[in-house]
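Exam prep: given the inputs below (a chain plus manganese (II) ion), describe the expected output before reading on.
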Amino acid sequence: MKKQDIADIKHLLSSPKKIVIVPHKNPDGDAIGSTLGLYHYLKKGNHNAQIIAPNDYPNFLKWIPEEHTILKHDSQTKVCDTLIKDADIIFTLDFNALHRAGNMETALAKSNAVKIMIDHHQAPDNYAKYIFSDVSMSSTCEMVYHFINMLGDLNEIDSTIATCLYLGIMTDTGSFRFPSTTSETHKIIAHLIEKGADNAQIHNNVYDSNSYNSLQLLGCALTNLKVIPESRTAYITLSQEELNKFDYKKGDTEGIVNYGLSLENVILAAIFIEDKQEGIVKISLRSKGNFSVNDMSRTHFEGGGHINAAGGKSYLSLNHTVEKFISILPSYNKALNNE
Ligand code: 5GP
Ligand code: MN
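Solution:
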C-alpha cells in the first residue's frame, strides 16, 4: 500500500464512521478471524462497525469474541442491504472479486461507500478505492496485523484482537506448516501470544471439536480416496447421499482434501463434494511446489485462489465432474511429473 493511501485511510478513520466489514461466502477461519480482528480494532477507535457475512460459517468458529454479532446476508437481507447502502466505508476481507460475496455482490457494487480491500489471493479486481493485496502473505489475518501496524496502532492489539488474528493465521497456514509461513509470520504469532492469544486453547477450539458423525464422514471420504499415480494425483468424492448419512454440518468436510496430499509422491489433491441444494459440485484443489491449482481452477472450474490451494465449482453431475477432472489431467502430466 502506498504511503499516501495509508495517510488517506488514517485521515478517514480519524473521526467515527459507519463501517461494514465483509468476508467471502462460506467464510473460513481466516475470513472470520480477519473480519473480527479488524472489527474489534475499529470499535476501539469508536467506529460504528458491523460485520456482514454472505452466509453462515462452521460451528468450530462459533466461540470467537463477539462472533454472535455477525449478520448473515442470506437470512437477514433487508437489514444488511440498508447497512451496506448507508455505510461510509466498506472493508472487504479475504477475497478480491465481488462475486465471491455471493448474493451480496449487487448491494456492494451499488454502494457509494469508500471500499478498502485487504486480501492475499491472486489476481485482484479493481472495485476498491484502496487495495492492500499481497499474494505472498500467509493469510488476511497477517495482513490485518500489518494494516494496524501501518496505521501506527500495534499497541491497540489486545488479547481479543490477538485471538482473532492468531486464529486465521493458524488455519490458513495449516498450523504454520505451509510454505507461506515465514519468519515474519512466526514473529507476528509470537507477538500475538504475548498480547494474550491462548494458542493451545484456540487450536483446541478449532481442531478438537469433531462430532462422532464428522469423523465417520472422514472415514467415508478416505474409503472413497482414489489415486492416479501417473499424474501424481489423488481425489476424493462425497455424494449428497453420503453427506446426509453422516448428518453433514457446515465445516465437516474442512481439511479432508489435505489427506490426499499426505500420500507419498502425490502433489495434486482434489475433493468433489455434491451440493444438491445449490445444484453444484463444490471442488477444492491442493498442490505442492509450483503446480498452480489457481490456474487449473480458473481454467476448468470457474474458481481461483492461491497457487497451492484453490476452490471452484461444477454444474455437471458428481460423476461427470470427476470424469472431466480425469480427462484434463493428462494435459498437466508434464508439469505434475516435473515437480
Ligand atoms: P477451499 O478449497 O478451502 O474452499 O478454498 C481454497 C482457497 O481458494 C481459499 O483461499 C478460497 O478463498 C479460494 N476459493 C474457494 N472457492 C473459490 C471459488 O469458487 N472462487 C475463487 N475465486 N476462489 C475460491
Ligand atoms: Mn485467507
